[in-house]
């Protein structure tokens, strides 16, 4: 938490981010100093995708652990960024690159191929993808919608899998 | 997790010494006449060498014996071998009846066999194997294998049990008043050591979540060290008639000296071993010898100074694993691993086997009250201990242990080998030694049999959080792996915080100083090609290792590649066998996540590889680009030749070539285990022309390309491409670019040749960049 960090990040911004993402004050300043270290070009954005700090925080907010005591306090009006649904949405978007809210077979194949080693033939991968879609698809459109995605993962402890403990 | 292989390594390494102890206790270490623990099979009576029939008994010259038998000469090794074989046969036998091993842990079975053999021996009045002596135990036998649960748990258990038992002893009715506090504490320290073998087998079978597994595993390994230290302390104290406060203080101090001293010695020997292996490149065959001898030396030397030899050997192995693995050849690594596994397996087998034998054949002293209360307290204190310790540590963990986990940990506290051995080495000055021995055996049998058999249904019943390894659906498997990859990436983004300041510092020191000294040819850690080679080797070995599991077994479905994505396909039937195949394929082939905690990220930078970052970014953008309709990617798999930087200078206009090069770089550098290391495959279901890749041949041999129809276009392309290659880039680059044009051609007649597997070994010409040391300057 160098002084450089705090001068570049104004208090009201911190407050806004805090409200939006749920991080604490010290976490935000820490992450800001991290952001600035990553931001080699010093133009306020991380390269290529032009992510600014807000975007950075918004993304990271998805990975906050879900806290139980949040339910006890006043229930937030909008769903917090790190809710289970939003975490799943994040994962969903990793597949759905063209943002049509559906995971098509091709998108699935893309990701599958990336995750998998050389030794799998196209046919095998294709049938794995087909099976995946078959398991999830309920409305018969040969794509996986977000609802179907959520249903498929209902037994999985997503809150634990997609959480990092941010130290403060 | 990385802990597990390390622990298995040294646990087995340490456990090898257990076998020696049993061998030696068979035959006594003090030169006693060894009783012959003959197995229940026929025993060859010893024949005297000069026992031939002599025609003239008082003849001075005997004839040259043509055929003799000299049993005493081979007696000792012979009987050792027979014992080992017997135990190993038993082990084979269990696995023939697979159903048994599902429900009954192997240790139970071994003990049962031991009981049977012991009964046989007892009934023929053979003598049991000689009892362990302390010397023998500590010189040859080593309990396998440090930490919050281990240290504190053992302390807690020992002291708790000891004190409660002492209280019980005060009650006159039970007749054990003569046991004083020290002896109680000593006994308690013996029985608080948990044994990993049985419980971890069950955990694996039930596939509990990894956190639980790791904690129990680690606890079992390290608490043996603690136990032995405590045991030594208490036995020393037990001898003393009067205990003064200063003795207690000294005891505590000694505890630290012993523990830390052990670690220090271990690390020292580890460094020496690492340094030695730096120079063994010409004598590869004896590399394993160094490893084993140095470990054993560490053990012996720490015994010399009466400090904790277990810690020494554990730390030695840990240190060695890290540095030595880089220095020794692949073959030596394999050898070491296999030898260690084998020895560990033998020793486990033998221990439980002998437990059974000895149970029957020793004299027991039975005292209902003491023994029952021991059982009760052991149980109670362990449960309490786990509860308390977990409460203390949970706030510091991301994933807290819930009650079910804690139950699993508490219930999984089976006693075993260590307690057994320690009980036998109690000094005879303790009056109630037999009682202690009996009580220990009772506890071991109780925990192993009852808890061991019942833990499996219990865990399933209470539904301890499982790993996701055996999930039902393919979906879950894939998505979970994706999430894990994501998390790895995000963790990289966030970096480490100042809590790891010392770790950072150590790692810097490590890189700058230690690695230079201890590792031969220390290239910078981010030498991608070396890493790539290692990863692919490991990958290949893993695949080869699993004999079952046929990765080429395609599901019994006809490949349904169609031109249109949206065409209504008839629903394919997926049989159960296909599903199983799919799970197999996925679990074997999906890249594993690299270890979660990035070991040495500084606060201000990503982990020190800029190349994988490049790869990631490029891959991401090229994926997006490739999703545009009609752009196919042919399957490529090749490595970047030496000298070529990742930053391609290709203008984005020729986007196919840019993709080409990105793919090249991506493919060549799968970075860490988990990153997306595979060439992009054709996204669409349509057929795409696949080209065999003989990337390392020279340009002129373009016609090696299988697709003759593409031949002409390739040639054209390759010529154009060559203008783009870096002058330093050797010919292979051109060939690589040849197939690119395939991307641009759409609607070609699909000519599906069988996909060329890049993993196939190429001609290992010197041009193979993999074999060459790349001299390349990573550009930031």
TrEMBL record, chain A:
UniProt entry keywords in alphabetical sequence: Calcium, Cell membrane, Cytoplasm, Lipoprotein, Membrane, Metal-binding, Myristate, Nucleus, Phosphoprotein, Protein transport, Repeat, Transport
Molecular-function GO term, any one: calcium ion binding
Keyword Lipid metabolism: no
CC terms in the record's Gene Ontology section: cytoplasm; nucleus; plasma membrane
A single BP term in Gene Ontology: protein transport
Localization (cell): Cell membrane; Cytoplasm; Nucleus
Family of the protein in this entry: Belongs to the calcineurin regulatory subunit family. CHP subfamily.
Protein name, per record: Calcineurin-like EF-hand protein 1
Organism: Kryptolebias marmoratus (Mangrove killifish)
From TrEMBL, chain B:
Compartments in which it is found: Cell membrane
One MF term in the entry's GO annotations: sodium:proton antiporter activity
GO cellular component: plasma membrane
Region (Disordered): 699-780
Name by which UniProt lists this protein: Sodium/hydrogen exchanger
Positions of the Sodium/hydrogen exchanger regulatory region domain: 553-651
UniProt xrefs under Pfam families: Na_H_Exchanger, NEXCaM_BD
Gene Ontology biological process terms in this record: regulation of intracellular pH; sodium ion import across plasma membrane
Keyword Transport: yes
Family affiliation: Belongs to the monovalent cation:proton antiporter 1 (CPA1) transporter (TC 2.A.36) family.
Residue ranges of every copy of the Cation/H+ exchanger transmembrane domain listed in the record: 147-459
Membrane topology classification: Multi-pass membrane protein
InterPro entries documented for this protein: Cation/H_exchanger_CPA1, Cation/H_exchanger_TM, NaH_exchanger, NHE_CaM-bd
Composition skew (Polar residues), residue ranges: 713-726
Transmembrane segments: 74-96, 108-125, 145-169, 181-200, 212-234, 255-276, 296-318, 339-362, 368-389, 410-430, 436-459
Keyword S-adenosyl-L-methionine recorded: no
Sorted UniProt keywords: Antiport, Cell membrane, Ion transport, Membrane, Sodium, Sodium transport, Transmembrane, Transmembrane helix, Transport
Origin organism lineage: Eukaryota, Metazoa, Chordata, Craniata, Vertebrata
């Amino acid at each position: 938490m160098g002084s450089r960090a705090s001068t570049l990040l104004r208090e009201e911004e911190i407050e806004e981010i805090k409200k939006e993402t749920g991080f604490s004050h010290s976490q935000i300043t820490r992450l800001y100093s991290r952001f600035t270290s990553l931001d080699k070009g010093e133009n306020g954005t991380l390269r290529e995708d032009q992510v600014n700090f807000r975007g950075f925080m918004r993304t990271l907010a998805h990975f906050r652990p879900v806290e139980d005591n949040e339910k006890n306090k006043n229930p937030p009006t909008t769903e917090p960024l790190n809710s289970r649904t939003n975490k799943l949405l994040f994962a969903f978007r990793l597949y759905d690159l063209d943002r049509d809210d559906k995971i098509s077979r091709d998108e699935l194949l893309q990701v599958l191929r990336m995750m998998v080693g050389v030794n799998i033939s196209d046919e095998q991968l294709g049938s794995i993808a087909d099976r995946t879609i078959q398991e999830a698809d309920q409305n018969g459109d040969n794509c996986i919608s977000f609802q179907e995605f959520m249903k498929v993962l209902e037994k999985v402890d997503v809150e634990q899998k997609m959480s990092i403990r941010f130290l403060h | 997790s990385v802990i597990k292989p390390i622990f298995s390594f040294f646990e087995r390494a340490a456990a090898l010494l257990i076998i020696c102890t049993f061998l030696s206790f068979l035959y006594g270490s003090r030169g006693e006449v060894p009783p012959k623990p003959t197995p229940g099979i026929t025993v060859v009576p010893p024949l005297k060498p000069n026992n031939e029939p002599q025609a003239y008994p008082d003849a001075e010259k005997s004839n040259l014996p043509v055929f003799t038998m000299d049993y005493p000469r081979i007696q000792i090794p012979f009987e050792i071998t027979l014992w080992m074989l017997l135990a190993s046969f038993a082990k084979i036998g269990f696995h023939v009846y697979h159903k048994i091993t599902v429900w009954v842990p192997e240790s139970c079975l071994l003990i049962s066999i031991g009981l049977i053999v012991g009964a046989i021996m007892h009934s023929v009045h053979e003598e049991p194997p000689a009892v362990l002596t302390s010397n023998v135990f500590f010189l040859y036998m080593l309990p396998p294998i440090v930490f919050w649960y281990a240290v504190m748990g053992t302390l807690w258990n020992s002291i708790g049990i000891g004190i409660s038992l002492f209280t019980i002893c005060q009650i006159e009715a039970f007749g054990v008043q003569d046991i004083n506090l020290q002896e109680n504490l000593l006994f308690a320290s013996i029985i608080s050591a948990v044994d990993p073998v049985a419980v971890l087998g069950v955990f694996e079978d039930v596939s509990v979540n990894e956190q639980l597994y790791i904690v129990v595993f680690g606890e079992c390994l390290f608490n043996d060290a603690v136990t032995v230290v405590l045991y030594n302390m208490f036995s020393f104290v037990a001898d003393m008639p009067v205990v003064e406060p200063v003795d207690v203080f000294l005891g505590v101090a000694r505890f630290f000296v012993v523990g830390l001293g052990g670690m220090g010695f271990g690390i020292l020997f580890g460094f020496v071993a690492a340094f030695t292996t730096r120079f063994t490149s010409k004598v590869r065959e004896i590399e394993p010898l160094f490893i084993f001898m140095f470990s054993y030396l560490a053990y012996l030397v720490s015994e010399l100074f009466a400090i904790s030899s277990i810690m020494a050997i554990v730390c030695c192995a840990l240190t060695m694993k890290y540095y030595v693995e880089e220095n020794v050849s692949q073959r030596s690594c394999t050898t070491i691993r296999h030898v260690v596994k084998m020895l560990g397996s033998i020793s486990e087998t033998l221990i439980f086997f002998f437990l059974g034998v000895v149970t029957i054949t020793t004299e027991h002293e039975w005292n209902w009250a003491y023994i029952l209360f021991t059982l009760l307290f052991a149980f109670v204190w362990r449960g309490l201990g786990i509860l308390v310790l977990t409460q203390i540590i949970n706030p510091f963990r991301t994933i807290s242990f819930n009650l079910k986990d804690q139950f699993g940990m508490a219930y999984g506290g089976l006693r075993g080998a260590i307690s057994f051995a320690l009980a036998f080495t109690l000094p005879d000055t303790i009056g109630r030694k037999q009682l202690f021995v009996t009580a220990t055996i009772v506890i071991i049998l109780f925990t192993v049999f009852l808890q061991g058999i019942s833990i499996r249904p219990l865990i399933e019943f209470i539904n301890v959080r499982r790993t996701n390894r055996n999930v039902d659906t393919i979906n879950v498997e894939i998505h979970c792996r994706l999430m894990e990859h994501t998390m790895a990436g995000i963790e990289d983004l966030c970096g480490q915080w100042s809590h790891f300041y010392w770790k950072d510092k150590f790692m810097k020191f490590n890189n700058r100083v230690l690695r230079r000294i201890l590792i031969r040819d220390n290239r910078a850690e981010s030498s991608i090609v070396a890493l790539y080679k290692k990863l692919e080797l490991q990958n290949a070995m893993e695949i080869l290792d699993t004999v079952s599991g046929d990765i080429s077994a395609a599901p019994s479905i006809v490949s349904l590649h169609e031109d249109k994505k949206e065409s209504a396909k008839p629903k394919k039937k997926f049989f159960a066998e296909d599903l199983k195949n799919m799970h197999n394929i996925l679990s074997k082939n999906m890249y594993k996540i690299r270890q979660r905690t990035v070991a040495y990220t500084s606060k201000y930078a990503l982990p020190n590889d800029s190349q994988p970052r490049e790869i990631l970014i490029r891959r991401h953008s090229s994926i997006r680009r490739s999703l545009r309709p009609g752009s196919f990617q042919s399957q490529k798999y090749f490595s970047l030749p030496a000298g070529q930087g990742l930053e391609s200078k290709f203008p984005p206009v020729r986007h196919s070539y840019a993709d080409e090069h990105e793919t090249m770089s991506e493919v060549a550098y799968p970075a860490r285990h988990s990153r997306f290391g595979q060439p992009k495959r054709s996204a669409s279901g349509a057929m795409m022309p696949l080209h065999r890749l003989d990337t390392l041949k020279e340009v002129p041999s373009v016609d090696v390309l299988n697709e003759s129809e593409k031949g002409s276009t390739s040639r054209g392309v390759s010529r154009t491409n060559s203008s783009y290659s870096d002058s330093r880039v050797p010919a292979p680059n051109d060939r690589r670019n040849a197939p690119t044009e395939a991307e641009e051609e759409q609607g070609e007649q699909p000519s599906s040749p069988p996909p060329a597997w890049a993993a196939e070994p190429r001609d290992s010409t010197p041009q193979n960049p993999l074999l060459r040391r790349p001299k390349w300057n990573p550009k930031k």
